[in-house]
């Protein structure tokens, strides 16, 4: 995962917005890498910085109102500090983004086909309108829209929710991007439609061998889609590693909290739903030390007031290389097995 | 859409009828007899109760109000003959009666004054938009910067000055004190008589209406644009790699125009129904001044006509706004 | 503040720090064991106390009007079409299904925000389907609603105290003086600071607003709460807080829930019994085990297989699933016969000709399918043909008569159709 030749390399990324009440540091020292054909899942709640960090990859933040430091390299091109024309060459071309609510993310006044064609023509200035339209129909067909040659002239509101998200994906992929960032791509959709869209994303990734960043709050989606997971809390990466390790033997209490606060369709009936107490912190005055300590139920297991005073480093845990976490707990594996798992999945403890 | 327009026109007709009925009734039962203006005018201000009674009798103001409104409404479609004193005024259709101050036919006066009002209104409204929209867009794109803040606060200051004061000062300085040649001549010259004079006479009224009105349109446009620029689809447009001008104008402005068009349609209707201050200050014989003086003199036929005219304009401009709305936004289906 | 005070302020914490080393990091955070003890396991079924709500063949058709000058009625949106179920006293029934299946409309019918087109809503044995507004007023106290969106369902111009106290004033339950104490008591129940009664909704986070919505619903001590997607707008970590709160409230106030949600896992945790809806009809209803472990309807099976599963992480890759093609058809012209047949992987001719009856196939399990069975073991021949008096492709069979045992009444019988023996009987 620390492959400097990877397609997407994010190093020490910080994103800060000055506000009238003081600066808000939405992303703080974030680093990750992602290779072609790989999928990274970024998990976190609203305000965790997961969307902000991904928008920075496309340079979508208003340069006048944002302070971005660190480095983002896409296919060897440094994005941080890149000028607007340079960014435009990347956007929608080698890096594409698809958004959560396709109804809001597609322009309500323009036909679906013309929005797709526009995305094609801006990076293929020599293409004629006919070519662009043909390409739009081809992409709509590719993402499974029935009768694409007539639906191409529909407006977004004439599409169903699932079809709109398909059209959004078609628009993102129209220029064969090497990196696709999907920001909550299935959150507003029904489960069966969500399954269709996730299937489609996976098929397309295989076909185009692109790198995919999938941003979600749904650990189930992560479990089925991602090769690696990055858990964010209050702008920082708190745990990062291969999906299997993060979800099977997590080492950071926030990740435990996420796992314990969602029910599972096949869970043990005796499993408890244990919430994370309190509310996510304000980024205007982030907590001292570990940002999660005011909500952490395991603070008592760390000696002294370390959690409140000292920010834990992002260090390798007991699972070996590739799995890092930001926590002062000395024996997270043991605490998780003995205390957390026993409550949230008693069946799994007995097995092991 | 056709059915919708028919339906709206039908309901519009009802609105117009109700408005004209209400105005008619208000002045009929008002503090002063509707016949008093003509009595005053014809007797040289020696209007005795007997004479007044006589005029009321002749003009039908002693009749039942329902019958008299019926005669009035019928006259619009068929014309009528109106006896007064020992003459009979032949009022062709559309007959709106005759002014009780000048004996002139109301319809003729309306037609005579309309070009002046249209000149003022259309020119002023054009400036509203031509100045307001680009300035609003520019401010929205630079929102939060010093320039934007200066613009917003100076426009806020400008729009808090009463319009009549603004226009009066403009006239005072440009025409009277500095005597700027091109802004010098005020008053209306028909465009068919002398286009240059027409333009010279209209220029200052236009500028006053335009500059004052554009402060509002800048606000509307800026507000709508700021909101639109934070929409998800604008982010999508940027993420596609479109150049900023395409993002702002093609994707942003079209959506932002929807609320602006709504306000503009109503404003234009109101302007066409008479720009009272502008006409008064710049000595333009338009609908607004005419209506105002008629109200002051309780000149019922003229008041009724201006109210009728205003109501029709508002109904039509509302309808046009709806149609434009459906053209701009494909989600709006008129039915 | 005087100079002396400032000095004192600076000194005191230091002195305290010496006496009390490591001043409790954040004393309000409970230890994990405490947290776990306060949390609930999945709710259990208790049938000993009868039912509080019985819904019988409930229908809601919304007329569809044509455009043009004269708007004629051209059809109906059959939003809810013959739905029957029971909610046990103090228990909870889950209604699940995808958008447009009619689950929210059902909830609104039960709170009588709509007047149903047909059917009965028996609340404590009184049919409230046809009551007038005035007759409904006393019943409105008993049935309250919790809404999905905590941001739009609270009036931003009213204080939290006014919002929660409003029902008390409207129904004149307590004298004016006692309203505030009651409001504060309710705030405490839902885990908010009772001193915050004079704040406005925008001063609270999404999860806190949902708590306010819950407090408002509890104000009149209702016997039934209709919760329409109560947690789907909340952050993951907050969802669990609210679900646990609802479980606390259910125990403490002995209130029954009709729990409407699209999240199958949340419903599974909260509701011992679940009804699955598709295009205005219940396709399968039963206790938790019947629905989640032994679903017999292909739609329920497809829904369950579509839910992304965290446990999959241990295996990697995507799970095998039943793929449903296309979208839900329009409820204006729903498919003939079985409404699911256009997307059903096992549909046959009979499905287009006859609507499958909601047949009881277990102690607490009903399914509306001509070919009910576990995944991969659906029967080849329709088990309903004989009951409907038809042959296997759905043509009328002159020798057979429709069975009187096909009904659409709420609740479960002591005898049911045995899928193996293909007869009615007690298992």
UniProtKB/TrEMBL annotation, chain A:
Keyword Ribonucleoprotein on entry: no
What GO molecular function annotation could you give as one example from this UniProt entry?
Answer: ATP binding
- The record places domain ABC transporter at 8-259
- On the tree of life, the source organism's domain of life is Bacteria
Question: Which keywords has UniProt assigned to this entry?
Answer: ATP-binding, Cell membrane, Membrane, Nucleotide-binding, Transport
Q: Where in the cell is it found?
A: Cell membrane
Its membrane topology is listed as: Peripheral membrane protein
Q: Does the keyword Nucleotide-binding apply?
A: yes
State the GO CC annotations.
Answer: plasma membrane
CDD domains, sorted: ABC_NikE_OppD_transporters
BP term (GO), one: peptide transport
| Stated family | Belongs to the ABC transporter superfamily.
- Please report the name of this protein according to its UniProt entry: Peptide/nickel transport system ATP-binding protein
Taxonomy of the source species: Bacteria, Bacillati, Actinomycetota, Actinomycetes, Propionibacteriales
UniProtKB/TrEMBL annotation, chain B:
CDD domains (UniProt xref): TM_PBP2 (cd06261)
Xref: InterPro entries: BPD_transp_1_N, MetI-like, MetI-like_sf
Q: Where is the ABC transmembrane type-1 domain?
A: 114-321
Keywords in alphabetical order: Cell membrane, Membrane, Transmembrane, Transmembrane helix, Transport
Q: Which GO terms describe its biological process?
A: transmembrane transport
Q: Where in the cell is it found?
A: Cell membrane
- Give a Gene Ontology cellular component term annotated to this protein: plasma membrane
Q: Which domain of life is it from?
A: Bacteria
Report the transmembrane regions from the record. 9-30, 116-138, 150-178, 198-215, 256-282, 302-328
What topology does the record note for this protein and the membrane?
Answer: Multi-pass membrane protein
- Which family, according to the similarity comment? Belongs to the binding-protein-dependent transport system permease family.
Identify this protein by name: Peptide/nickel transport system permease protein
Automatic annotation (TrEMBL), chain C:
Cross-referenced CDD domains:
ABC_NikE_OppD_transporters
One GO MF annotation is:
ATP binding
Residues forming the ABC transporter domain are 64-304
Key word Transport present: yes
SUPFAM superfamilies per record: P-loop containing nucleoside triphosphate hydrolases
Q: What InterPro entries is this protein classified in?
A: AAA+_ATPase, ABC_transp_ATP-bind, ABC_transporter-like_ATP-bd, ABC_transporter-like_CS, Oligopep_ABC_C, P-loop_NTPase
Q: Locate the region Disordered.
A: 1-23, 391-414
> What is the protein name given in its UniProt record?
Peptide/nickel transport system ATP-binding protein/oligopeptide transport system ATP-binding protein
């Amino acid at each position: 995962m620390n492959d400097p030749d990877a397609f997407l390399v994010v190093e020490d990324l910080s994103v800060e917005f000055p506000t009238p009440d003081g600066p808000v540091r939405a992303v703080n020292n974030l680093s990750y890498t992602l290779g072609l054909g790989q999928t990274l899942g970024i998990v976190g709640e609203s305000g965790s910085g997961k969307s902000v960090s991904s928008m920075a990859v496309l340079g979508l933040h208003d340069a006048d109102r944002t302070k971005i430091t660190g480095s983002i390299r896409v296919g060897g091109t440094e994005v941080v500090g890149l000028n607007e024309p340079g960014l435009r060459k990347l956007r929608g071309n080698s890096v594409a983004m698809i958004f959560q609510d396709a109804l809001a993310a597609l322009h309500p006044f323009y036909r679906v086909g013309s929005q797709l064609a526009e995305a094609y023509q801006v990076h293929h200035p020599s293409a004629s309108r006919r070519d662009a339209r043909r390409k739009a129909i081809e992409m709509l067909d590719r993402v499974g829209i029935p009768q694409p040659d007539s639906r191409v002239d529909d407006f977004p509101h004439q599409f169903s929710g699932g079809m709109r998200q398909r059209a959004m994906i078609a628009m993102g992929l129209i220029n064969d991007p090497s990196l696709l960032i999907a920001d909550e791509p299935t959150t507003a959709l029904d489960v069966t439609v969500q399954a269709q869209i996730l299937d489609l994303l996976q098929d397309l990734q295989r076909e185009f061998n692109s790198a995919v960043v999938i941003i979600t709050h749904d650990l189930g989606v992560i479990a089925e889609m991602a090769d690696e997971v990055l858990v964010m809390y209050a702008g920082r990466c708190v745990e990062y590693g291969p999906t299997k390790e993060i979800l099977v033997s997590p080492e950071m209490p926030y990740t435990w909290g996420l796992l314990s606060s969602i029910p599972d369709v096949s869970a043990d009936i005796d499993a408890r739903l244990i919430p994370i107490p309190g509310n996510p912190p304000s980024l205007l005055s982030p907590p001292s030390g570990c940002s999660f300590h005011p909500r952490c139920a395991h603070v008592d297991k760390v000696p002294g007031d370390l959690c409140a005073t000292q920010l834990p480093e992002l260090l390798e845990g007991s699972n070996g290389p590739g799995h890092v976490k930001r926590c002062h707990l000395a024996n997270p594996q043991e605490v998780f097995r003995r205390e957390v798992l026993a409550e949230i999945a008693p069946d799994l403890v007995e097995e092991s | 859409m056709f059915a919708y327009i028919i339906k709206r026109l039908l309901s519009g007709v009802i609105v117009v009828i109700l408005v004209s009925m209400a105005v008619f009734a208000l002045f009929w039962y008002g503090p002063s007899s509707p016949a008093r203006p003509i009595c005053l005018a014809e007797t040289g201000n020696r209007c005795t109760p007997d004479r007044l009674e006589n005029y009321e009798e002749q003009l039908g103001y002693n009749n039942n109000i329902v019958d008299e409104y019926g005669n009035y409404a019928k006259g619009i479609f068929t014309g009528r003959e109106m006896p007064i004193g020992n003459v009979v005024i032949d009022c062709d259709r559309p007959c709106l009666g005759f002014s009780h101050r000048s004996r002139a036919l109301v319809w003729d006066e309306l037609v005579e004054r309309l070009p002046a009002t249209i000149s003022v209104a259309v020119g002023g409204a054009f400036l509203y938009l031509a100045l307001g929209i680009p300035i609003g867009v520019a401010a929205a794109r630079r929102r939060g910067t010093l320039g934007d803040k200066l613009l917003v606060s100076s426009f806020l200051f400008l729009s808090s000055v009463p319009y009549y004061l603004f226009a009066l000062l403009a006239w005072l300085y440009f025409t009277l004190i500095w005597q700027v040649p091109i802004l010098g001549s005020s008053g209306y010259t028909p465009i068919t008589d002398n286009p240059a004079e027409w333009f010279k006479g209209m220029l200052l009224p236009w500028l006053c209406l335009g500059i004052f009105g554009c402060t509002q349109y800048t606000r509307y446009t800026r507000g709508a644009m700021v909101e639109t620029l934070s929409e998800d689809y604008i982010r999508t447009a940027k993420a596609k790699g479109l150049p900023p001008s395409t993002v702002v104008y093609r994707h942003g402005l079209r959506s932002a125009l929807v609320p602006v068009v709504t306000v503009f349609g109503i404003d234009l209707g109101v302007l066409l129904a008479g720009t009272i201050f502008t006409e008064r200050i710049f000595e333009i014989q338009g609908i607004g001044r005419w209506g105002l003086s008629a109200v002051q003199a309780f000149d019922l036929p003229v008041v009724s006509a201006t109210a009728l005219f205003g109501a029709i304009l508002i109904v039509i401009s509302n309808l046009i706004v709806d149609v434009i709305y459906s053209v701009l936004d494909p989600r709006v289906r008129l039915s | 503040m005087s100079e002396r005070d400032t000095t004192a302020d600076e000194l005191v914490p230091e002195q305290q720090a010496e006496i009390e080393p490591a001043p409790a990091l954040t004393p309000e955070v409970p230890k994990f064991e405490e947290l776990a003890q306060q949390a609930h396991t999945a709710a259990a079924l208790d049938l000993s106390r009868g039912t509080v709500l019985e819904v019988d063949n409930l229908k809601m058709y919304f007329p569809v009007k044509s455009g043009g000058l004269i708007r004629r009625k051209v059809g109906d949106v059959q939003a809810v079409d013959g739905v029957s179920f029971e909610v046990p006293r103090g228990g909870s029934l889950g209604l699940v299904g995808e958008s447009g299946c009619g689950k929210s409309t059902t909830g609104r019918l039960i709170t009588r925000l709509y007047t149903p087109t047909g059917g009965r809503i028996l609340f404590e044995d009184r049919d409230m389907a046809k009551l007038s507004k005035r007759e409904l007023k006393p019943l409105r106290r008993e049935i309250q609603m919790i809404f999905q969106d905590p941001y739009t369902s609270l009036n931003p111009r009213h204080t939290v105290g006014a919002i929660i106290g409003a029902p008390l004033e409207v129904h004149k339950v307590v004298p004016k003086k006692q309203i505030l104490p009651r409001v504060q008591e309710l705030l405490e129940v839902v885990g908010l600071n009772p001193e915050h009664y004079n704040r406005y909704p925008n001063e609270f986070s999404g999860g806190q607003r949902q708590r306010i919505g819950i407090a408002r619903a509890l104000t009149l001590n209702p016997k039934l709460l209709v919760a329409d997607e109560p947690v789907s707008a909340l952050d993951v970590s907050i969802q669990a807080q609210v679900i646990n709160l609802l479980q606390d409230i259910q125990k403490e106030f002995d209130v029954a829930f009709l729990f409407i949600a699209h999240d199958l896992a949340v419903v599974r945790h909260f509701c011992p019994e679940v009804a699955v809806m598709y295009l205005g009809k219940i396709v399968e209803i039963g206790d938790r085990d019947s629905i989640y472990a032994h679903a017999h309807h292909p739609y329920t099976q497809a829904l369950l297989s579509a839910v992304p599963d965290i446990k999959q992480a241990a295996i990697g890759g995507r799970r095998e699933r039943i793929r449903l093609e296309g979208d839900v058809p329009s409820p204006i012209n729903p498919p003939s016969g079985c409404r699911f047949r256009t997307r059903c992987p096992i549909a046959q001719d009979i499905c287009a000709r006859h609507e499958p009856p909601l047949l009881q196939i277990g102690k607490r399990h009903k399914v509306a399918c001509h070919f009910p069975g576990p995944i991969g073991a659906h029967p080849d021949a329709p088990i309903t043909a004989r009951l409907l008096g038809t042959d296997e492709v759905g043509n009328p069979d002159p020798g057979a008569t429709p069975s009187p045992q096909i009904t659409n009444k709420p609740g479960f019988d002591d005898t049911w159709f045995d899928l193996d023996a293909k007869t009615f009987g007690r298992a």
